[in-house]
């Protein structure tokens, strides 16, 4: 597993830095954003009335609403499936493409290789979710802002399940394809397709972004347990299928 962590070191550091940049590009600038909105109030109100966003803009003065919508419901939330895909796409395909999988399997069993790769990507993905979710808690503490910490903990649940689901989908593509390009294109393409289909009302459930962005947490203050359990189970079956294919794949 040490090898897997070393292989993902660069990607993990880059994702961590991106997370910090994203957070500190919005958290300290609430007043600046509100100032810009106030300065362009006349223009903004025209579109806000049209799309029913008047109440949302006024609520941005509230620190909790600002962080829930701009961090969890936008910047960080949007990146969660992408982070999972970036971490998982080369796990198996790169070894096959570079011709190193044969040497790896001579030294280790297929079970060890499979579990070490999958668990290492999940551990890093989960760590990024936890760090990204507690950043508002830490920042609020040091800046003296009143923050609803329990909401951030609920977002952690949605983030962990989202990483689990998209990590396992990407692992599946990484195993069935023998180069590194197809797994990332397939995973990103699937994410785009089901997100687009989710805009069709009967297919709304396909849009994992609604879940990752914590719509139910923001609107009702609750974790969406039914969707969480469904994604967890589907992700589990995809991981089992990946395991079966890897165990029987000719290398």
UniProtKB/TrEMBL annotation:
Q: What's in the keyword line of the UniProt record? A: Membrane, Transmembrane, Transmembrane helix
Superkingdom as given in the UniProt entry: Bacteria
User: Which residue ranges traverse the bilayer?
Assistant: 12-33, 76-93, 114-135, 155-177, 184-205, 225-246
Check the record and name the PANTHER family matching this protein: INTEGRAL MEMBRANE PROTEIN-RELATED, MEMBRANE PROTEIN
Its recorded name reads ABC transporter permease subunit
The organism encoding this protein is Marinitoga aeolica
- List the top taxonomic levels of the source: Bacteria, Thermotogati, Thermotogota, Thermotogae, Petrotogales
